[in-house]
Design goal:
The structure holds 2 protein chains of 2 kinds. Chain A contains 7 helices and 10 strands. By secondary structure, chain A is of the alpha/beta class. A 6-stranded mixed beta sheet of chain A has the order 6-7-8-3-9-10, sandwiched between helices. In chain A, α3 runs parallel beside α5 and α5 runs parallel beside α6. Chain B is 54% helix and 18% strand. A 6-stranded mixed beta barrel of chain B has the order 3-4-9-6-8-7. Chain B has a two-stranded antiparallel sheet with strand order 2-10. The chains are: A alpha/beta, B alpha+beta. At the A-B interface, α2 and α3 of A face α1, α11, α12 and α14 of B.
C-alpha cells in the first residue's frame, strides 16, 4: 500500500539546514496497523506529513496504492488527499461552527457528493463511532473523546485507503485513549490500513507493528503481539 | 460559482458566524449610507446657495426694446421700438434647439385687483408657461399657466403669495373669482418666489388674455429665455454671449435698426452677474467630491481590513479544509463568494436606507443654505459597485495567500 525509498528531508533554519529525515526505507501492506514511535525531533511528524502529502520530500520516492507521489501541484495533491487519505489529529481540528454531522460530511462535499447523500453517509459513520445522538452538536459541546470520534468518522467518510493519525490520543486521558484505540482496532479489523504516530509505549503496543525512529533514521522495525485496547478500558 | 451546493455552504457559514457577518455588513452598509447622505447634503447645499443668490434663473437672457439713436434706412433717430409676437417667434424659431425655456411678456404695472371687499394695486404680467422657470416661481397651490390657457385666452390668474395674504387672509383662493381692471378672473394657482415679497406681489395671466384685456394687440414688452445650464462658468458665459450677439443681430435686421445702434435693443445677460455664484458652487462641488472620495477610500480600506482579518481568523479552517481535500481555487472561491455576497447585500441595504432617508426627510429640510437634499441614483449605485469590487479585490489577496498556506503550517498548534 505504501512504499518509501531513501526519503530525505531537511528544513532551512536561517543559515543552517536541519537534516530531519536521513534516508527512510519503509513499506506498509494493506490492512496493517503500524505505529511510528520516536522522541520529539526524531522526524516522525515530518514523515507523517510527507506520507499525508501535506509536505514534500527533498529526495527519494513515495508510492501510495501504486500511484507515485511526486511533483504534485496543489490541486492534484488536494485530490489525492481526498481520495487516498483520512487524517486524525491530536487537536482534532474540527471546524467549530459546524455541527458534528457537517464536520463529518466535509470531505464528501469536496468529493462532489450531493447533500442528501452526504448527510446519509455521514450519519452512518457517526453511528459507527457511537455518536449518532450527538450529530447536531457543535464541537464545543462535545468531550475530548467525542471530538476525536467525530474526527475519526470524518477521516473515514471519504472511504480512504489509509488512515493517518498524529498523536491521536495526545490530548486525552488514559481511559478515553484506550476507548479511542479500541475504535481504531475495530476499524483496522475491518481491513483498513492505519498509521499511528505516537510517543506513548502503551498506545504503540496496541498496534501490530512498531517502527522506531531516531534522529531521522529507522532504528527498529518489528511486529508485536497486539494488546487489545478493550482489555484496558 | 453558482452551484447550489456552494450557496448552501456559504449560507451555513454566514448564518453560523453571525457576529462576523454583522460587523462586515455593518461597516460596508454604514459606509455607503454615510456616502449617500454626504452626496445628498452636497446637492442640498448647491440648491440652497443657488436659491439664496438667485431670484431669477441665473442664466436668464432678457431682451427689451428701447429708442434708436442712429438714423437708418430712412428712419429718424429717436424712434421707439415695439416688440411684437412675431419677433418672439423669430427669436425662438431661429434657435429652437439651443433654447431651454422661453417666454415673452406683456405687463401693466399697476392693476387694481379686487376680491370681495379687499383690493390692492399689483403688477399684472401676461406670460407663457415657461415663465415660471425663468422667474423661479414655485407653485404652492394649484398650477401655473399652461398652453391650453394661452390658446383659449382663458381668464385665469396665478397670484403671488403676498397677494394671497393681502386679499384672501385665510382659506384657499383656488377657484375663487377676482376682478382685475373690472374683469372677472379665476384664480388657478399660488406661487412663491425666491425674490421675496417684491416678486410675490405680482399676478400672472395668460399672455394672449393680457394682450386682449389691455388692448395691446400683438405687442409684447420683453422676451426672456435661458440656455441649458453648463457646469463650467467660462463655457456658459461664452455660449450665452455668442447667443445674445446672434439674437441682437437678428432683431436689428428685422426691425431695421442700425447695426451699431446701442440703445434700440437691450439684451441683459444675467449670467454676467453670476460669476461669483458659479465659482462658489464649483468650489463646493470640489469640496464635496473630495470629502466623498475620502469617505469612499475610508470605506474601501475598512472593507479590505475586515477581509484580511477574516482570512487570518480562518487560517486554521482553511488548513483543515485543505487537509480534507479542498483545492486552492475552491478556498479562494469560497472566501470571495462569501465576502461579495455579504458586502453586496449590506451595501444595498445601506444604499436603500440612505436614499429612503433623503427621500423622506429631504423635502422638509429648508434651512437657509440647504434645500431639498437628494442624490443621483446612478452615482450611488456605481459607488456601491466600486465598494463591492474593492472588497472582492481586497479579499482576493489574503484569500489567495490563505489558499497557498501549507496545511501543516495552518494546523500547527500554537
Amino acid at each position: 500500500m505504501i512504499e518509501i525509498k531513501d526519503l530525505h528531508k531537511s528544513y532551512k533554519m536561517g543559515k543552517n539546514s536541519l537534516h530531519v529525515l536521513k534516508g527512510i526505507n519503509f513499506s506498509v501492506k494493506e490492512g496493517e496497523l503500524v505505529s511510528i514511535m520516536g522522541s520529539s525531533g526524531s522526524g516522525k511528524s515530518t514523515l507523517l506529513n510527507i506520507l499525508g502529502m501535506l509536505d514534500e520530500a527533498d529526495s527519494g520516492s513515495y508510492t501510495l496504492d501504486g500511484v507515485p507521489i511526486k511533483n504534485l501541484n496543489e490541486k492534484l495533491a488536494a485530490q489525492y488527499r481526498n481520495k487516498f487519505l483520512g487524517f486524525i489529529f491530536q487537536s482534532f481540528n474540527l471546524i467549530n461552527y459546524k455541527s458534528a454531522l457537517d464536520n463529518v460530511a466535509l470531505p464528501l462535499y469536496y468529493q462532489g457528493v450531493n447533500r442528501a447523500e452526504r448527510m446519509e453517509r455521514s450519519m452512518a459513520y457517526l453511528e459507527k463511532v457511537g455518536l449518532a445522538k450527538w450529530a447536531s452538536h457543535k464541537p464545543n459541546e462535545l468531550s475530548g473523546g467525542q471530538k476525536q470520534r467525530v474526527a475519526i468518522a470524518r477521516a473515514l467518510a471519504s472511504d480512504p485507503k489509509v488512515l493517518l493519525a498524529d498523536e491521536l490520543t495526545g490530548a486525552l486521558d488514559s481511559k478515553t485513549s484506550y476507548e479511542i484505540m479500541d475504535l481504531i482496532q475495530q476499524i483496522n479489523d475491518e481491513g483498513r490500513t492505519i498509521l499511528v504516530v505516537t510517543h506513548e509505549e502503551d498506545i504503540a503496543q496496541m498496534t501490530k507493528r512498531i517502527v522506531n525512529l531516531k534522529d531521522g533514521v529507522i532504528i527498529d522495525d518489528k511486529y508485536v503481539n497486539q494488546v487489545r485496547a478493550i482489555q484496558n478500558v | 460559482m453558482f452551484s447550489l451546493e456552494r450557496w448552501q455552504e456559504i449560507f451555513e457559514t454566514i448564518s453560523k458566524n453571525k457576529l462576523r457577518t454583522f460587523l462586515t455588513g455593518f461597516s460596508v452598509g454604514s459606509g455607503i449610507f454615510i456616502l449617500v447622505i454626504l452626496l445628498g447634503v452636497s446637492v442640498g447645499f448647491q440648491n440652497g446657495i443657488e436659491n439664496q443668490f438667485q431670484n431669477d434663473a441665473e442664466n436668464i437672457i432678457n431682451i427689451y426694446p428701447g429708442e434708436t439713436s442712429i438714423e437708418y434706412e430712412g428712419f429718424n433717430e429717436g424712434r421707439r421700438i415695439q416688440l411684437k409676437n412675431e419677433d418672439y417667434a423669430l427669436v425662438t424659431k431661429s434657435s429652437s434647439n439651443e433654447i431651454e425655456y422661453s417666454s415673452s411678456m406683456y405687463q401693466i404695472f399697476a392693476g387694481l385687483i379686487t376680491y370681495k371687499s379687499e383690493s390692492g394695486s399689483y403688477r399684472v404680467e401676461g406670460v407663457m408657461p415657461d415663465y415660471q422657470f425663468l422667474e423661479k416661481a414655485e407653485i404652492i397651490e394649484g398650477r401655473f399657466i399652461n398652453t391650453n390657457d394661452l390658446d383659449g385666452n382663458e381668464k385665469y390668474v396665478v397670484i403671488g403669495n403676498r397677494v394671497k395674504k393681502d386679499l384672501f387672509k385665510e382659506g384657499s383662493p383656488i377657484g375663487k373669482q377676482v376682478k382685475i381692471s373690472g374683469l372677472n378672473f379665476k384664480v388657478i394657482g399660488v406661487y412663491t418666489d425666491p425674490g421675496g415679497d417684491r416678486e410675490e406681489g405680482r399676478v400672472y395671466v395668460p399672455l394672449t388674455t393680457a394682450q386682449i384685456v389691455f388692448g395691446a394687440g400683438t405687442d409684447i414688452r420683453s422676451i426672456g429665455l435661458t440656455l441649458p445650464k453648463e457646469d463650467n462658468y467660462d463655457l456658459a458665459l461664452k455660449n450665452s454671449s455668442a447667443f445674445a450677439a446672434k439674437i441682437e443681430q437678428l432683431l436689428k435686421k428685422k426691425l431695421q435698426i442700425a447695426p451699431k445702434d446701442e440703445s434700440a435693443i437691450y439684451i441683459n445677460n444675467n449670467i454676467e452677474n453670476t460669476k461669483e455664484v458659479y465659482i462658489l458652487i464649483g468650489a463646493m462641488r470640489v469640496f464635496f467630491w473630495g470629502v466623498g472620495i475620502a469617505t469612499l477610500l475610508a470605506g474601501i480600506i475598512g472593507v479590505s481590513n475586515i477581509m484580511l482579518i477574516i482570512v487570518k481568523e480562518r487560517t486554521k479552517e482553511i488548513g483543515i479544509r485543505k487537509a480534507l481535500g479542498a483545492e486552492p481555487l475552491s478556498i479562494v472561491g469560497m472566501i470571495l463568494h462569501e465576502s461579495i455576497f455579504v458586502t453586496a447585500i449590506s451595501g444595498l441595504l445601506g444604499l436603500i436606507f440612505g436614499l429612503v432617508l433623503l427621500e423622506v426627510v429631504g423635502p422638509y429640510i429648508e434651512l437657509d443654505f440647504i434645500r431639498n437634499p437628494s442624490v443621483n441614483f446612478s452615482i450611488a449605485v456605481s459607488t456601491l459597485i466600486l465598494l463591492i469590487a474593492a472588497g472582492a479585490i481586497a479579499g482576493f489577496f489574503p484569500a489567495w495567500r490563505g489558499a497557498k498556506i501549507k496545511p501543516i503550517d495552518a494546523l500547527r498548534d500554537e
